[in-house]
Amino acid sequence: MGRLAQTDGLTDIQREILATVREFVDKEIIPVATELEHRDEYPTRIVEGLKELGLFGLMIPEEYGGLGESLLTYALCVEEIARGWMSVSGIINTHFIVAYMLKQYGTQEQREYFLPRMATGDVRGAFSMSEPGLGSDVSAITSKGVRDGGDYVLNGQKMWLTNGGSSTLVAVLCRTDEGHPEGTAPHKSMTTFLIEKEPGFGQVKPGLTIPGKIDKMGYKGVDTTELIMDGLRIPADRVLGGATGRGFYQMMDGVEVGRVNVAARGCGVAQRAFELGVSYAQQRHTFGKPIAQHQAIQFKLAEMATKVEAAHAMMVNAARKKDSGQRNDLEAGMAKYLASEYCKEVVEDAFRIHGGYGFSKEYEIERLYREAPMLLIGEGTAEIQKMIIGRRLLEEYRIQG
Predict the structure, then answer these.
(1) Measured in Å, how far apart are the chain's first and last C-alpha atoms?
(2) pLDDT tens for residues 356-386?
(3) Residue 379 annotated among the catalytic residues of the structure
(4) Of the listed 28, 366, 371, 379, which one is catalytic?
(5) C-alpha distance from residue 182 to each of 116, 144, 190, 255, 374 (Å)
């Protein structure tokens, strides 16, 4: 292991967990990732391995059968997994957002019912905000839940649902007008519903359809789908937290965890791209010597390594801020923005170092080159992150008087 992306102040347990995950990545993920990705094949054996390691319960409290670890531990594990194959980190990301939301906001009954099975990976989570007509504009959500006796009836169409087919529990954000008079701010009339379903595609529950996988440029293997609700009946006790109108705040808190995850994914992919670039530069010879000995390539490697290190430091800071109980939207936004942008740049530089071979599917860098762009838009675009950062800075540095 090189000197890059090391984290000071970890406990012995954290170091042991990370060493175990890195060994798993090196032995079980990297050797098969490119082949599975090219086939767009779900990594069933890898997921089973993650379950055996207990990673689906990493942040779930011990009282519910999890390991009770911190967001920092989780983020560092995600960094390692994304270094192997970014799609695998996506499989656990949405699972953990739902588990985090249940831990923070679920009723006692909801926590006791879902979290122990989520800790073992027997229940797998996904969450859904986006719709075909909107992306980052969450206030424009049109999916709706209407009270009908002891149930809610849900109608609407959702988009970009990671783990849409493989999940068995989906947290879905819908508009609910009940108890919220006309004119109420949109974000105060949204509710998170916990929808249990069968894994698979097609009609997975009466009133709920998961169409087939969306064919993507990269981020393959993991299933990304739509979700269509047509008269879907959900018991009222499956409203997250037991009360309507809180969904926007619950989801935004979960997204902060997700943004730290995306930052960690960017760090992992960038680190792998650097490893590939620095290795290839020492093997490829031009003009009588390895290209690593050419100053132009050394400059490129220096820039890549600096970006890997900077992104890692910001990601760790954002995770530790959240773990301390402090507001971290500023730090998470900065980390997500910087890590995703730097990831794209480091991957492109590694691609350039490979020359014509980088364009060949035989080389791993080709896969990374298609994966990196997803991080630029996942969990909010760079423009959204800059809006969040700018607003928070104005709050922090507001002129008095």
Answers:
(1) 53
(2) 999 999 999 999 999 999 999 888 788 889 9
(3) yes
(4) 379
(5) 40, 15, 13, 27, 37
